[in-house]
């Protein structure tokens, strides 16, 4: 059983929603990534998506676009991401997935990428621009190295496509809440509940998680009524951005604030954390 499967089983036994958080590697600065991952861990995150910086992150809104650009300005490369994943893994059992785009993976080499990701302690991959129908080589390599491969569905996905994604995915199925970018406003999407309720009926082989546009605990609880959990990226990126822009904060202040952000997102208030 994978580390991710074990986590979902434990959460289900506690009747608790899973919280996944996304952080771009190398943002806001390379030396901050591992301390930030540990702060998320202390804040109660159930799994982490570590973003692989890419120059053309087509599914991302402005916050994650900026984070990617900032990391690339720092010269972050794939080997750096693997090294920081390995450093985090040495001190934590929290599932860690790499999220990014398929071109850098192809350039690195699919088999070599999966081998090095697994060696670094990575548990799975999320590549939003990889169609399931064209994933055979990556599926094989991921399976060989025991990496989960997560695929996405969207509100305009047909029933047949949702079933097909569920059959191909491992780890979980990622339900994008809107037909838009990360960080989108959810207020104009009144049909999201109906879409997630439909997806809940159709996804039978994997946990179902919802992401895109979730900014608060209230957003997370509302959208995850029909899912096994939720994923937040842009709101965390914005929080980190603001903390690092304020020179009056020490590093400890910033990490404490990120830990509190994660705890508040999952539990509603830091005071209720277990």
Descriptive report:
There is one protein chain. By secondary structure, the protein is an alpha/beta fold. 47% of the residues lie in helices and 14% in strands. It has 12 helices and 8 strands. It has helices spanning 3-13, 33-42, 62-73, 78-89, 102-108, 110-119, 136-144, 159-168, 192-202, 217-223, 234-245, 251-267, and strands at residues 18-24, 47-51, 96-99, 124-126, 148-153, 173-176, 208-211, 229-232. Strands 1-2-3-4-5-6-7-8 form an 8-stranded parallel barrel, surrounded by 9 helices. Helix 2 (33-42) links the parallel strand 1 (18-24) and strand 2. Helix 3 crosses helix 11 (234-245) and helix 11 runs antiparallel to helix 12. The model has no long low-confidence stretch (mean pLDDT 92).
Explain briefly what this protein structure is:
The protein is 47% helix and 14% strand.
Helix content: 40-55%
Q: How would a crystallographer describe the biggest sheet? A: 8 strands, parallel, barrel
The rounded distance between the terminal residues' Cα atoms is 26 Å
- What overall geometry do the principal axes of the alpha carbons give? globular
Low-confidence stretches: none
**Which structural category do the helix and sheet elements fall into?**
alpha/beta
Query: How many separate helices?
Result: 12
Spatial ordering of strands, largest sheet = 1-2-3-4-5-6-7-8
What number is the mean pLDDT?
92
Order of helices and strands: HEHEHHEHHEHEHEHEHEHH
Number of strands: 8
Percent strand: 5-15%
Rounded radius of gyration (Å): 17 Å
């Amino acid at each position: 059983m994978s580390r991710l499967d074990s986590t979902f089983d434990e959460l289900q036994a506690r009747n608790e929603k899973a919280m996944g958080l996304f952080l771009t590697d190398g943002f806001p600065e390379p030396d901050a990534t591992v301390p930030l991952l540990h702060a998320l861990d202390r804040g109660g995150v159930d799994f982490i998506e570590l973003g692989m910086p890419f120059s053309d992150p087509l599914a991302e809104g402005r916050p994650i676009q900026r984070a990617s650009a900032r990391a690339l300005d720092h010269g972050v490369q794939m080997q750096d991401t693997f090294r920081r994943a390995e450093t985090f893994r040495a001190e934590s059992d929290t599932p860690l997935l790499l999220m990014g785009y398929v071109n850098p993976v192809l350039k690195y080499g699919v088999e070599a990428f999966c081998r090095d990701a697994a060696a670094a302690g990575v548990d799975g991959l999320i590549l939003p621009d990889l169609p399931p129908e064209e994933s055979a080589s990556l599926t094989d390599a991921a399976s060989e190295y025991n990496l989960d491969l997560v695929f996405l569905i969207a509100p305009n996905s047909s029933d047949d496509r949702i079933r097909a994604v569920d059959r191909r995915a491992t780890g979980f199925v990622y339900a994008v809440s809107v037909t838009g970018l990360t960080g989108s406003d959810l207020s104009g999407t009144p049909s999201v509940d109906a879409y997630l309720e439909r997806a809940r009926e159709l996804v039978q082989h994997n946990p179902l998680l919802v992401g895109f546009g979730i900014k608060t605990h209230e957003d997370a609880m509302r959208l995850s009524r029909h899912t096994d959990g939720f994923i937040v990226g842009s709101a965390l990126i914005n929080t980190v951005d603001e903390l690092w822009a304020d020179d009056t904060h020490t590093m400890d202040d910033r990490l404490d604030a990120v830990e509190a952000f994660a705890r508040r997102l999952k539990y509603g208030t830091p005071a209720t954390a277990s």
